[in-house]
Structures are given as structure tokens and as C-alpha cells.
Amino acid sequence: MRRYWQKKPLLIRQAIPGIQAPLARDELLELADSEDAESRLITHFRKSWAMEHGPFAPDELPSVKKRDWTLLVQGVNLHNDHACALLDRFRFIPDDRLDDLMISYATDGGVGAHFDSYGVFLLQVHGKRRWRFGAQRDLSLKERLPLKVLQHFEADEEWVLEPGDMLYLPPHIAHDGVAEGECMTASIGFRAPSASELSGQFLYHLAERLDDARSAGAKEVSNATATGPAGGQSPGFVTAAPDRTGWRDPCAP
Question: What DSSP string runs through the chain?
Fold first, then answer.
């Protein structure tokens, strides 16, 4: 991964041999009907893009025999143990970069050519999906659409993924995935931490170190008070606890 991470796409045939979908189609549709799950329905009927947000009752979804519609369910790992176990396989990346496991269900269709601002693993768990992708510079989007679709898409490579195959795409790589028949694809996203998140984590780390130093200092004060004067010190005198934070008050003498 050192050669490819955040740099260029990588196709891994049979990354997880013998894989099965974490949940069946009916279970996924049932999850999309829940208030607790985030779901979207994207259609491309009569060459017109549309997007709706769930939850979706069973009669609100198109027939599985109909083409050109896709159901996206976010955070499946929060609702399904098998999906959670699958996501655990990707914990070789720090947890603060790990986003969630989304499942895309489609029948002969996709969501249009687009790009993501984060890296993603696209793992085929059922059926087949044809991926076309490329590192194009023109990332302009079509106007007046409810979703982000590239205005001009040019693919450099094209692959058909079967169950167990996986494609890694770095951020901003244009890609278009089209189901060939009924299929499910698991997307494992890895986000880059924002500047505010990094600064927040750094301040939290400093606060923890300061609390540890205060605790250590209080303990030494308590021990010194209990043992009484030593080494010629007058009663009640205690030496200052060492500064374990590495920080010095610029106003101190």
C-alpha cells in the first residue's frame, strides 16, 4: 500500500476470497426503511437524474426488475454484525481516518461519473460491477442536478469486479461504476482529518499531559508533607514538583 496509498488506484483480485454479502437484499431494504439508518435512492430514469433521502417503505422503492436505480445505505456497520466484522478487516489504517461501511445495491445501473474527496476501497460482495476510472484534471460538474456528476468524464482504465475483488481509489480520482445485473458493492471510506480536528486532538493531548503532571505533583506534595522535614529543610517546606509537561510559563522569572 505504500506505493499506492493516496497516490494511484490499485486493483486487487480476490482480496477476500469466498466473500458473501454482509446482509441479504431484503435485509438491506428493511434497513433502508429504518429511521436509524441513512439511505438515499438515486435514479436515472429517462436520462434524468433524481435523488431522494430515506427512510423508504417497501412500496416506495422501484422493482428489483427495473434498471437504472441505486440504493445507498450508509453506516451499515452500525446495524449489522457481519458488516461490522467486515469493516474490522480495514483497521490497518488508524481509526480516526476510518469513516464507515456503505453498501450500494443496484440493478444494471450506477450513480454517474463522479469523484470523492477521500480515499475509498470498493469491495464487490455480490454480482458484478464494471468500473471505469481515471486521473483527469477537469473535475467540473453538471449543473442543476441533485447529485454530483462530472460534466466531462474520460476513463484511463476499465475493470469488471466480481465477488471478492477490490478496487482502491485515492481522493479525486474520477470513477463510474455500473452494475451488470443485480449487485452489491461495499464502500469503505477513509477521510483525511481536517485542520480543526488535528488541532483539537493536539490540544486534548496537551491537556492530558498537564493533568498527569498535576496529579504527579499533588502526589509528591502529599508524600513530602507526610514524611516531614528532611535534608535540612524547615518544617512545612516542600520542593516544587518537576514540570513533566515540557512547557514553561514565559511570564515566570
Answer: -TTTTTTS-EEETTSSTT---SS-HHHHHHHHT-TTS-EEEEEEETTEEEEEES---GGGSPPTTSSSEEEEE--GGGT-HHHHHHHHTTTTS-GGGEEEEEEEEEES--S-SB--SSEEEEEEEEEEEEEEEE--S---B-SS-SS--BSS---SEEEEE-TT-EEEE-TT-EEEEEEEEEEEEEEEEEPPPPHHHHHHHHHHHHHHHHHHHHHHHHHHHHHHHHH---TTPPTT--PPPP--S----TT--
C-alpha cell at 34: 429504518
Which pTM was predicted?
0.75
pLDDT in tens, 134-152: 999 999 999 999 999 999 9
Q: Cα separation of 96 and 75, whole Å? A: 15
Segment 16-63, tens digit of pLDDT: 999 999 999 999 999 999 999 999 999 999 999 999 999 999 999 999
